[in-house]
Design brief:
This protein is an alpha/beta fold and 295 residues long. Helix content is 36%, strand content 23%. The protein folds into two domains: 223 residues, Alpha-Beta Complex (Spore Coat Polysaccharide Biosynthesis Protein SpsA, Chain A); 60 residues, no CATH class. This is Glucosyltransferase.
Length: 295
């Protein structure tokens, strides 16, 4: 088997404890193929809680770049990818030099800083990728503290969550961007997430473009990691809010901002695009109206 040189792309913003936990879990991966090297490229978007300093202190091999706080997550990931290409991206053990210009990378790994990889996660992803061939994206499913799958591959126009199989990979149409292994051959065909998507939907668009380019996408068996913390804020689903507030929230960067969502629908859901573009906003307004009537 050829040597594996992995460029790990991460972004962070004011989640010091979680970011350090994610890096520690990455450092503790086991069962990797002999000769595997890692280069970690972290782009921090204006953290005020000391995240960059803490990472440099505890994980000196990680290449850390600080950018402005108004840099959207999708652009930060593109910057991390650019850094991995300019520096080679391979490197050695995580105790070595930052970034690692020693080797050109064979794979990129998108890794959300809120995900702690399970000890055998990387080995499982690489094993799945090796069996699938160089033109397959491999997705790692992520569970919450209760064991429920919360991020994974997605299927269909409704973007239904794909449960990971126990022993075999599951095909998917696109993917959440929390844990995604992208071989070099796929990157050369598809590139980075599109800058048209600043906060969300860049991962879904990337998966759709990959499939259109003849790339398959698979969810690796089992779960790759666990995300910490409690459930997120209810957002536009919060009971008791009015229609105007529900629409403000559903069109915010945290949910489905208008322009990126419309670009996604026009690219990937025609001829149902007009309906799908309006559906989530109509649902949010109807939900708020019914909630007020019942309250």
């Amino acid at each position: 088997m050829h040597s594996v040189h992995l460029a790990v792309l991460m972004t962070s913003h004011d989640r010091r404890a979680r970011t350090l936990s994610a890096l520690r879990a990455l450092e503790e991966q086991r069962g990797l193929p002999a000769g595997t090297t890692l280069g970690v490229h972290l782009v921090d978007t204006g953290s005020t809680d000391g995240t960059p300093e803490a990472v440099r202190l505890r994980h000196p091999a990680v290449e850390v770049m600080s950018v402005d706080a108004d840099t959207p997550p999708n652009l930060a990931l593109r910057i991390a990818s650019r850094n991995s290409r300019s520096g080679g991206g391979g490197g050695g053990p995580l105790g070595g030099a930052p970034g690692g210009p020693t080797h050109p990378w064979t794979h990129q790994l998108w890794l959300d800083d809120g995900v702690e990889l399970l000890p055998d996660a990387l080995a499982n992803l690489l094993r799945t990728a090796g069996a699938a061939g160089p033109r397959a994206v491999v997705v790692g499913a992520v569970r919450n503290a209760y064991g429920d799958t919360v991020y994974s591959g997605r299927r269909g126009r409704s973007l239904a969550l794909v449960e990971p199989g126990e022993h075999r990979p599951e095909p998917c149409d696109t993917y959440d961007g929390r844990v995604v292994l992208v071989p070099r051959a796929v990157y050369d065909r598809v590139g980075d997430p599109d800058k048209a998507f600043r906060h969300r939907l860049g991962d879904y668009d990337h998966g759709r473009r990959a499939r259109r380019a003849g790339v398959s996408a698979l969810v690796a068996p089992g779960h790759a990691g666990e995300c910490g913390g409690g459930p997120g804020a209810p957002g536009s689903r919060e009971p008791g809010i009015g229609v105007r507030e529900a629409l403000r929230r559903v069109t915010s960067a945290q949910e489905l901002p208008l322009r990126p969502w419309w670009v996604y629908c026009l690219r990937h859901t025609w001829p149902w695009a007009p309906y799908l573009m309006l559906a989530p906003y109509a649902r949010a307004a109807a939900r708020a109206s019914l909630g007020r009537l019942r309250g």
